[in-house]
Structure formats: C-alpha cells, structure tokens
Amino acid sequence: MNVEKDYMNAPETGRHLLKCVWTSHPDHERRCELRIPAGVVDAAWQEELELNRWHEGFFHFAWRGDVWLAYGFADGRVRGVYCPEHRAERDARSFTLDSPELALSA
Predict the structure, then answer these.
(1) Residue 29 confidence (pLDDT)
(2) According to the model, what pLDDT value does residue 104 have?
(3) How many separate domains does the chain show?
(4) Which domain holds residue 50?
(5) CA–CA gap between residue 56 and residue 51 (Å, rounded)
C-alpha cells in the first residue's frame, strides 16, 4: 500500500474520470458520485507495477490527503475505484470476514 506518497501532483488530465463503484447493496438504488482523475489512479498503479508489489489486484493509494482503493491488472489497466469513505467501509468488512475471531465464533 503506497499511502506515504500522495499522488496530488499526478496528471489529472487524461482519458477520463473514474467514479466510485460503491452501490447500496442489495438494492443498488444509491450510488456514490465521487470521482477521481484516471491519470492519478494510473500513475499509482504504474508505480505499484514498477515496484513489483503486485501483478494484479486491489491496491491503496493516497490522493489529496485521503486513501483510495482501486483494482489494477498486470497489463497496466485499472478498473474500479472506491472513494475514501467507501474504501474504509469495504476494508472494515474485509477485515471482519478474514478475522480469526469470526471463524472461532462460527
């Protein structure tokens, strides 16, 4: 997770804006409207690939003082981002599901 480096200076121009993929599961009637420049996300993923941290998968990165979550592919493409608020909710759920305490209580 590269949260030490803030991608504040990454290029904000480029292909388009990526919108947070969060929806109000299970009805999906509400959606998050936060967006981030694709160039910012692409720059963060390229650095992860160059550092050989990941080949494909979720990665955290900082932008404008907040931590975002995105999914990157080995070919350099990025698909899907979670804004800071919904990233935190997702991370909390993931931590709970992976928690050994949960397995012990089942």
Answers:
(1) 77
(2) 43
(3) 1
(4) 2-105
(5) 13
Farthest CA pair distance, the chain: 49
HSE-CB at 78 with a 13 A cutoff on CA atoms is 31
Strand 17-19 relative to strand 57-63, pairing: unpaired
d(CA 63, CA 87): 13
pLDDT-above-90 percentage for the chain: 53
CA angle 21, 27, 29 (to 5 degrees): 65
| CA dist., res. 48 & res. 28, Å (int) | 31
Residue 69 φ/ψ region, left for φ over 0, alpha for ψ in the -120 to 50 degree band, beta for the rest:
beta
Task: Give the C-alpha separation, 97 to 101, whole Å.
Answer: 9
The Cα-based distances of 48 to 71, 75, 101 in angstroms read 11, 12, 31
The rounded distance, in Å, linking the Cα atoms of 36 and 89 is 18
